[in-house]
Design a protein that fits this description.
Shape of chain B: globular
Structural class of chain C: mainly alpha
Radius of gyration of chain C: 25 Å
Strand content of chain C: under 5%
Number of strands of chain C: 0
Helix content of chain C: over 70%
Distance between the termini of chain B: 40 Å
Chains: A alpha+beta (353), B mainly alpha (300), C mainly alpha (295)
Radius of gyration of chain B: 24 Å
Order of helices and strands of chain C: HHHHHHHHHHHHHHHH
Number of strands of chain B: 2
Helix content of chain B: over 70%
Largest sheet of chain B: 2 strands, antiparallel
Strand content of chain B: under 5%
Number of helices of chain C: 16
Largest sheet of chain C: none
Order of helices and strands of chain B: HEEHHHHHHHHHHHH
Shape of chain C: globular
Structural class of chain B: mainly alpha
Oligomer: heterotrimer
């Protein structure tokens, strides 16, 4: 297992540039999740790491070796595809053996042993003689992972591997992937558009948008301290409330606020404050006043949408305390966790609090 | 780094050309070079096996324009194409519509109409010579049985070409029927059900639903049929040798006569180019008149 | 296939009105047989006549009063046909020519179709048009020049002369390209990661997945070239390399139409190989020809 280093990696198709200067290091045994909306360049980046796309400029180093121009099979990587990409005309066993026969000089017995072991780990020993058509979605997924495992690569690449599964199976496979990662000590680069997958799977998360890296960090760090408003709203559901405010001399003002808030810090004139639904509480009185626009009971709690001036924010509330639509309510903020962004650039203002 | 991109693209390009090379060699040698060459031949006096070639310019073409037999042959060719293609496609369409239902014995019917495609043209021609025989042929026997006058068929300059047209319908409509059947199966059945609820008659359903819905395939079949119609050479060669009185002489056979029997490659090449223009003109005509009206159901 | 499915049980248990319409529909189906059955027999007539005539005596053929069937089947027409024309030799030649054309075509169309389906290169559209145009050109407009070319190459009256003009197939390339484009691109990505280059991807992934298309093309190609008459007629003039259709044509010329039983015995011999294959693999043949029109 090994580290993967991307140094200013870019991708252009003709004149349009789809990936801009990505620099990122994936440590040994790390589970790095690249997340972002579709078209953000995450899949292209993964395909460049795999060697399926040329790297227009920049450098890719795997385990200390420059593999920028190396063909895929010389990079010591294995990949699991969104559609699994199992060869329809081969049995599960042949699907797993095919790459080994092409890229290694293992004997038949050695190949057999590797496949046997991988099949055991993935609980697919009984399915090895079947063709993909005879397997369920989850089983195909396991075979696809098995095909990557038997290669014993330095790095595993996953391209949205769970998006073709139904919700229940997706949860199960997520746990399974987590288990494989810790038990086998794999280095993984995992691409998804699903922020829940990113939060639950990654040891670190690389957030991308419009072909640029927005923020890299541990899931909770990104959740708590998003680097900009894009990251702030992409991660977390329901999304973070963003309230544009004016500030002067350390005081933050907004029409809905009962009185100006004090964060004790020098701030630009127009700022945006960010508060997550669980960081606000509905009170009779409160720091701000708003009108309840919508409530949604989701079992354990209620999601209450409150209009603060022109700004809608969602607030988590105990079901018993949920107000009625149209109520005028007060809202309290957890000031210790309140984020501040520069309204012009969208960037978080550090250090804060 | 952009060099690297260029290198990989160049590699793919070279591979592509290498993969196309075998096909291109044969296409060039036996499809495109012959066309160029036959234009050159047609401008010269070329005799088969004679190394001496004389420049004639347009003389072969002038000769062609003044060749009364050429115009007759062209007329025969047009007659054959404009009767055999529409008639066999019409027959194919009716057969296909009839078979596109829950009819028992479907497999039998399909095979019964399709098997002539499997029969070599020379064998088909020969059997029909027998069937058409004036003295003892089964067709004349059948006509007598029905109280109709007997015909001399292939020996009658009025009936020889129509006789070949009838044989062509037998030979090819099964093939067109199969292609149309495949298209009919893709027509959504709720369209027919809706029409039936509206009280639309079977004939109107054929004209207003079936034909527009399968028009791309119909169009394709017309092109294929036109291209197939040049196989009439085989039948003329086997059945009539162009006779009687050149009543079945068609362009392809006339090219053969000039090139191989009279060994006049130059004039035969001029005729071959006329054929090429005739065919491409025909396909152009078909695509201009019908191609525009075709009701495309989006790209499949 | 769906056409052969029997009525479902719910339909038979339908209320009276619906049942009557089913009954009417069934009657309509039956009624079609009244047209279709005689028509299909009419279509089969030539084949029946070939078989029946091949067992008659010459006298029976020319005598309108002799009846439809021979008095006693004269099977000796077959040995006597085989004694005047070496149909065994013709059969071997036909097999050699047809299978060589097919083998050559499979190689050229596979390679070209892959290039058109999956590679990018300058001039792609122009070249593809050149391939498609070949379908439109009638060989009758170029057979003369091709004959001259082969004559100059010294190939006239050889087996290769019957093969080389057909090795490239614009139609086959087009058909296969369409199939190749249906193969998901992730499969070729997976194969690249498994260490395959383009040719290996073609061999291990694409070809196994387009077997039905290859088979359909093979059937159409074999039927076309097995039955081809004009071209072998022009480029052969010795017994040793003639194919079955040419042999039959010569037999007809030699008999000048007089000996119909022997000629029909020869015809039976010539049409049998394909018709027998057709009867055995009916579904495959039908499917192959059926889907030439639907992309």
């Amino acid at each position: 297992m090994a580290t993967v280093q991307l140094n200013n990696v870019s991708k252009s198709y003709g004149k349009s540039r789809t990936v801009h200067d990505i620099s990122l290091t994936i440590e040994d045994k790390e589970f790095m999740v690249m997340v972002g909306p579709s078209g953000c360049g995450k899949s292209t980046t993964l395909r460049m790491i795999a060697g399926l796309e040329d790297i227009t400029s920049g450098q890719l180093v795997i385990d200390g070796r420059d593999v920028t121009d190396a063909p895929p099979q010389k990079r010591d990587i294995a990949m699991v595809f969104q559609s699994y990409a199992l060869y329809p005309h081969m049995t599960a066993y042949r699907n797993m053996a095919f790459g080994l026969m092409k890229t290694t000089r293992l004997t038949k017995a050695e190949i057999d042993a590797r496949i046997g072991k991988a099949a055991e780990i993935l609980h697919i020993t009984d399915l090895l003689d079947r063709r993909p058509k005879e397997l369920s979605g989850g089983e195909r997924q396991r075979v696809a992972i098995g095909r990557a495992l038997v290669r014993q690569p330095k790095v595993f690449l996953f391209d949205e591997p769970l998006s073709n599964l139904d919700a229940k199976l997706r949860n199960r496979m997520r746990a399974e992937l987590k288990r494989l990662h810790t038990e086998l000590g794999l280095t993984v680069i995992y691409v998804t558009h699903d922020q829940i997958e990113a939060m639950t799977l990654g040891t670190r998360v690389a957030m991308m948008s419009k072909g640029r890296l927005q923020q890299v960090g541990a899931p909770m760090d990104i959740y708590m301290k998003p680097a900009n408003t894009f990251v702030a709203t992409f991660i977390g559901s329901p999304e973070m409330g963003l309230i544009p405010c004016r500030s002067s001399a350390g005081k933050i003002g907004h029409n809905a606020f009962v009185q100006e808030l004090t964060l004790g810090q020098d701030l630009p004139e127009s700022i945006i404050i960010g508060v997550r639904p669980e960081e606000m509480t509905i009170r009779r009185e409160g720091m701000a006043r708003g009108r309840v626009e919508r409530t949604e009971l989701i079992g354990a709690e209620a999601l209450v949408e409150v209009a603060l001036g022109e700004q809608l924010v969602t607030i988590r509330s105990p079901v018993s305390d949920a107000p009625n639509i149209g109520d005028e309510v007060g809202v309290d903020f957890d000031l210790s966790r309140m984020r501040v962004f520069d309204a012009a650039s969208g960037h978080a203002i550090f250090p804060r609090l | 780094m952009s060099q690297n991109l260029g290198r990989i693209q160049r590699k793919e390009m070279l591979l592509a050309y290498a993969l196309l090379l075998p096909s291109l060699v044969f296409l060039a040698a036996f499809t495109y070079w012959p066309i160029v060459r036959s234009i050159w031949f047609s401008l010269n006096d070329v005799l088969l096996g004679d190394p001496d070639i004389f420049w004639l310019g347009a003389e072969n073409y002038l000769r062609l324009l003044n060749d009364r037999l050429f115009w007759k042959v062209l007329g025969n060719t047009a007659f054959y194409t404009f009767t055999s293609v529409p008639l066999s496609i019409a027959a194919a369409l009716l057969l296909a519509v009839a078979l596109d239902s829950k009819l028992r014995g479907m497999a039998f019917y399909r095979s019964a109409f399709f098997y002539p495609v499997m029969i070599p043209s020379v064998a088909a021609g020969m059997v029909w010579v027998f069937l058409y025989a004036p003295g003892y042929g089964p067709i004349n026997e059948a006509l007598t049985g029905l109280g109709l006058p007997r015909l001399d068929w292939l020996y009658d300059s009025k009936w020889a070409l129509p006789a070949i047209v009838i044989m062509s319908i037998w030979k090819y409509s099964g093939y067109f029927m199969l292609i149309l059947l495949a298209a009919l199966k893709l027509v959504p059945s709720d369209l027919y059900e809706a029409a039936r609820l509206d009280g639309v008659s079977a004939f109107d359903r054929l004209v207003h639903i079936t034909i527009p819905m399968i028009s791309p395939t119909l169009y394709f079949v017309i092109i294929i049929g036109t291209l197939h119609s040049y196989q009439i050479f085989d039948y003329v060669y086997v059945m009539t040798q162009g006779g009687p009185a050149d009543s079945t002489n068609v362009l392809t056979f006339y090219i053969y006569q000039n090139g191989f029997q009279y060994q006049d490659i130059g004039y035969a090449s001029a005729l071959a180019n006329a054929l090429l223009i005739f065919v491409l003109g025909l396909i152009g005509l078909v695509s201009l008149t019908l191609g525009r009206r075709v009701h495309y159901l989006g790209e499949r | 296939m769906a056409l052969d499915t029997p009525l479902s049980p719910e339909m038979t248990a339908a209320p009276p009105v619906a049942r009557r319409s089913n009954w009417r529909r069934a009657l309509k189906g039956q009624w079609l047989h009244v047209i279709m059955l005689p028509l299909s027999l009419l279509w089969l007539c030539p084949l029946i006549w070939i078989a029946v005539t091949s067992l008659k005596t010459s006298a029976e053929v020319f005598d309108p009063a002799a009846g439809f069937f021979p008095a006693t089947p004269k099977f000796s027409n077959y040995p006597s046909t085989l004694s005047v024309a070496p149909f065994g030799k013709y059969l071997v030649n036909s097999i050699i020519v047809t299978s060589s054309i097919l083998a050559g075509q499979l190689v050229t169309i596979t390679l070209a179709a892959y290039a058109f389906a999956r590679l990018n290169f300058p001039g792609k559209n122009l070249l593809f048009t050149l391939f498609l145009l070949q379908v439109m050109f009638p060989i009758y407009a170029i057979f003369l020049t091709n004959f001259v070319t082969l004559r100059e190459m010294g190939l006239v009256n050889t087996i290769p002369a019957m093969i080389v003009p057909f090795v490239a197939s614009g139609y086959g390339t087009f058909m296969l390209r369409q199939s190749f484009r249906q193969v998901p691109s992730e499969l070729s990505d997976a194969a690249r990661l498994d260490g395959c280059n383009h040719l290996e991807i073609l061999w291990h992934v694409y070809l196994p997945l387009v077997k039905p298309t290859l088979l359909a093309f093979a059937i159409i190609s074999v039927v076309t070239h097995w039955n081809d008459y004009m071209w072998p007629l022009l480029v052969t003039n010795s017994e040793a390399i003639r194919t079955l259709p040419i042999g039959l044509g010569l037999l007809a010329k030699a008999d000048s139409g007089a000996d119909w039983p022997r000629l029909m015995a020869g015809t039976t011999i010539v049409v049998s190989p394909l018709l027998i294959l057709f009867v055995i693999f009916q579904r495959r043949f039908i499917d192959s020809f059926m889907h030439t029109g639907v992309k």
